[in-house]
């Protein structure tokens, strides 16, 4: 799919890169494409104008023209400006003695689900959290919050009233009396132009005195994002944003715009349906992702969460030995599954973004490869060299593939093992066909996306191990 | 002029009732769209459009982009307008071209009995609400409606639909939370009725496993009743940006989309993404949501939509 922001910028800047020298015309052409790409990505038109102007000025400046590689200089400028626009560091909620977090946003932006996710995240930090439903508009909104609360073992304080201000204040008082130190107030979704409901939100705000007002914002919003953010800022003001539905192919245009126009930071990004899919938002990583430079840091963090400590230790052991049996393959593949949909993972790999169109096929290939491995005996899995012609035929029959497919899988494992040996020796593996992923860059491997994704991930155990330790000490 | 429900459903109706309905709709849509602080027309009307002035064209381009019409459809609209000899009534010309991009007046295919309508979309676009209101309208127009609560994922989705079923006098078919939505679709068709509306859980179009699940729901429906589903409606939020195109594309791969329901058009968002979807994918908009009331789901009328978009 040639239409994601990173692809387009990649194509435009790739053009510049090929030239070696930048002239006025080349820059104008590139800036036009940057402008279109940003608009396609739903970045607000006014933000786009300023952005393109800044990039152009710097691109025409001496630093680029004198450079031997002006194209790469422009890439750097675009990246710098994007990072700038997103804000330079992660920002978070205030953690005070008694925290009141008020969630506001349009209908359907995902407030109630976000309330559940936030409650779970704060509870994991050791806070005593309560949820308070003040959304009395939508049928069954309170039921939804109660079910969410029950599933994460967080109390929900509901008050039987038609008055959201009363529901919010009574819930807050009861939660406080019960010893909770953090309450999350879920409010009704509203249109920013609905004066009556905005007025009600202001009254709820004044009554519960929130320590943080959070605007919940759909990452798929179009040009409207800016109007929404401005209206909420003017009427109720807010301290930060939680960006939802970022696990789609939303390109982050809304995030860019809102950040740029209101100056408010993005606290978290919601990246999945499950209640644990709430991540701290990293502006610099987002800028890299928009530019298709990959998001290896997030990938490593996910791998770390997906693998138990035992598994991480095992992986390290294997790496040292330079072994890669089919047992390892199976556990690696299962770990990969736990990390979420393959597409999302692939997107984080540098240089892979533009190949995503093929990723659907890969899920099927992965299943086929798994079927082949499952058709092997445990002995075959741990000692792949014992698989002779007869056994290959049996495996092919057992998994419904051709013998050639089995041969390819066996060959692929050897390549993989070689790579593991290199990693084990502390070298970065050379990845044949890595940029061509995931169409099957590895020589003829039917299901090699798992292997190839294993490669960058297999550097994780070391990195993950270190990070793990750090995280633990940080928590105390 | 505005289309009536009878026209959308392909029913006969008295001229009087039709007029009544039309006036109500036109007024409401106009009212809601004019609420937007900077309607497209405002921007254009500020300075009279001058075909010989490149700034006028640039302003037009920006106004369309700001309405989420998107680059390709904007380029096409401008190309068509440039090709016109007479631009003396500019707003009229623009409205005509926008309506032209959006195709022929659509009909909701409910003339089989039972007719099955599958409703899909990403999270939070208003699927369940749209189904509830549609059920009510179909009921008012003499159809016996069955609602299948295929959203077995979101907490309390079933309760929400059940409330709507009561309001619309519809038969309600539900299942356990986490149940197989395909089984619920099957049961809903089994339960019978003139029109069977099947809700599905909101899902992002990039979630392969959930899109597979949707394809399965569709397969089960098709297997249970030949020719079904007769309509597969994608619910799109008016505030959606260009990602709406991706939604329409990828949902169509799992379950070919026959129409769009454009919701929340009563905000200040102009719903320009609908123009992009119609233009680039040829999928017609069939329904629009212009408010929270039960009567605020309406048959889509391209002419009115375009006019409301450009007039202030």
Automatic annotation (TrEMBL), chain A:
Its EC number is 3.6.5.4. Keywords: GTP-binding, Hydrolase, Nucleotide-binding, Ribonucleoprotein, RNA-binding, Signal recognition particle. SUPFAM superfamilies: P-loop containing nucleoside triphosphate hydrolases, Signal peptide-binding domain. Residues 423-476 are annotated as: Disordered. Residues 465-476 have a biased composition (Basic residues). One of its GO terms (molecular function) is 7S RNA binding. SMART domains: AAA, SRP54, SRP54_N. HAMAP family: SRP54. PANTHER family: SIGNAL RECOGNITION PARTICLE 54K PROTEIN SRP54, SIGNAL RECOGNITION PARTICLE SUBUNIT SRP54. Belongs to the GTP-binding SRP family. SRP54 subfamily. NCBIfam families: ffh. This is signal-recognition-particle GTPase. It comes from freshwater metagenome.
UniProtKB/TrEMBL annotation, chain B:
It holds the Pfam family SRP54_N. Its main location: membrane. It is found in: Cell membrane. It is a peripheral membrane protein. Residues 284-297 form the SRP54-type proteins GTP-binding domain. GO terms for molecular function: GTP binding; GTPase activity; signal recognition particle binding. Keywords: Cell membrane, Cytoplasm, GTP-binding, Hydrolase, Membrane, Nucleotide-binding, Receptor. Coiled coil: none annotated. One of its GO terms (biological process) is SRP-dependent cotranslational protein targeting to membrane. InterPro entries: AAA+_ATPase (IPR003593), P-loop_NTPase (IPR027417), Signal_recog_particl_SRP54_hlx (IPR013822), SR_rcpt_FtsY (IPR004390), SRP/SRP_N (IPR036225), SRP54_GTPase_dom (IPR000897), SRP54_N_sf (IPR042101). GO terms for cellular component: cytoplasm; plasma membrane. SMART domains: AAA, SRP54, SRP54_N. Gene3D superfamilies: P-loop containing nucleotide triphosphate hydrolases, Signal recognition particle SRP54, nucleotide-binding domain. Belongs to the GTP-binding SRP family. This is Unannotated protein. It comes from freshwater metagenome.
